[in-house]
Design goal:
181 residues; mainly alpha; 0% strand
């Protein structure tokens, strides 16, 4: 059945068998299955292969099928960021958050974009929200530490980096960031 084929593709994908997952996703697309998960997941594979144009098209199709699919909006933000289109990436992340306010990854990515746009205070708030949603989010703690460092809040920055390291002891970037403080 259609659902079995889609689930098989997702299982291949989850197990890291990208070749088989791609074949299944393409089969679904070629059979005319209009399933948002297929287009969104296939876009992730395309992005990892550096096929950003095709990934963007696939994500936009997922959003067309299911406009309130927060993960697709968040993933589209990643593609737009990769293209250097920071303003549109920001809008995509904000749309994902509007749909699903507890999507920690969207808050983290919004924080990255806001930092890139020089909006440090807003970036700080996004990282704090990501941590509020997911307290063990080491990347958010580390990024928050970087923002706090840039804002001159060195003691708070140190605490954030140490928290990132406590959560993920092998997180090399957090160790390096701590050293820069």
């Amino acid at each position: 059945s259609k659902e079995q084929i889609i689930n098989q593709a997702i299982q291949f994908h989850l197990k890291g068998n990208i070749t088989e997952a791609s074949k299944c996703y393409l089969y679904c697309i070629n059979q005319g299955f209009n399933d948002h998960r297929v287009f969104c997941n296939y876009a992730g594979i395309l992005q990892s292969l550096g096929k950003l144009d095709a990934a963007e098209i696939s994500l936009r199709k997922a959003i067309e099928i299911k406009p309130n699919y927060a993960e697709a909006h968040s993933n589209l933000g990643n593609i737009l960021r990769d293209f250097g289109n920071l303003q549109d990436a920001e809008l995509s992340y904000r749309k994902a958050i509007e749909i699903k306010p507890d999507l920690a990854k969207a808050h983290l990515n919004l924080g990255i974009i806001l930092n890139d746009l020089g909006k440090l205070k807003e970036s700080e708030l996004s990282y704090r929200k990501a941590i509020e949603i997911k307290p063990d989010y080491s990347e958010a703690h580390s990024n928050l530490g970087n923002i706090l460092r840039d804002l001159g809040k060195l003691k708070e920055a140190e605490i954030s980096q140490r928290k990132a390291i406590e959560i993920s002891p092998t997180f090399a970037i957090a160790h390096a960031n701590l050293g820069s403080i």
